[in-house]
Amino acid sequence: MKSSRADGTAVPVWSVGELAERFGLATHVLRYWEDEGLLTPDRDGGGRRRYGSEDLARVAIIVRNKAAGMSLGQIRVLLDSEAAGRHTVLEEHLADLERRMRDMEQSRAMTRHALECQAHDITTCPNFRSAVQDLIDGAEVPGRRLA
């Protein structure tokens, strides 16, 4: 659906269904994000949501950052340049991403080794076991949150 600017040029406008489909989301997800203050779509004369290009960008930012492990609360801070503690929240998320990337790289190396290892039981392979020795010795488990 299109709308027009005062100068007559077309402005792209999407319904909730069109925008949800574009991102592979259920419509209730967009409504929930609106309830959470992440989106503020315009309304037409009938009260139906109408999403513009700014909303499109916000949804893309939300989708990308949720995929990266950000919570909606963190995303709300990301989208609000005036949010209190914004830098702290973003620095914490960056540190979490860096830790997860290290964990993923280690998992990739372990998987490659398992594919090439002559030992059929990887738990008996000294090289494979060395990759998890820190956990065997009682190191903090990656991704586990302590209460």
Give the SSE layout.
Elements: E1 2-4, E2 10-12, H1 16-23, H2 27-35, E3 42-43, E4 49-50, H3 53-67, H4 72-79, H5 86-116, H6 126-130, H7 133-136
Top keywords for this entry?
about 150 residues, mainly alpha, Multidrug-efflux Transporter Regulator, Chain: A, Domain 2, 2 domains, two-stranded antiparallel ribbon, two-stranded antiparallel sheet, 7 helices, 4 strands
For the secondary structure, the number of strands is 4
Whole-number count of domains: 2
Major pleated sheet:
2 strands, antiparallel
* CATH architectural arrangement of the largest domain: Orthogonal Bundle
Element-by-element helix/strand order: EEHHEEHHHHH
**What proportion strand?**
5-15%
**Proportion of helical residues:** 40-55%
Distance between the termini: 48 Å
**Mean pLDDT across all residues, rounded?**
87
Could you name the CATH topology of the largest domain?
Answer: Multidrug-efflux Transporter Regulator, Chain: A, Domain 2
Number of helices: 7
Low-confidence stretches: none
Approximate shape? elongated
Structural class: mainly alpha
- Radius of gyration, in Å, reads 23 Å
Reading side by side through the largest sheet, how are the strands ordered? 1-2
What is the class of the largest domain in the CATH system?
Answer: Mainly Alpha
Summarize the structure in words.
It contains seven helices and four strands. The protein is mostly helical. It has two domains: 78 residues, Orthogonal Bundle (Multidrug-efflux Transporter Regulator, Chain: A, Domain 2), CATH 1.10.1660.10; 43 residues. The strands form two sheets. A two-stranded antiparallel ribbon has the order 1-2. It has a two-stranded antiparallel ribbon with strand order 3-4. α1 packs across α2. The chain is elongated. The N and C termini lie far apart (48 Å).
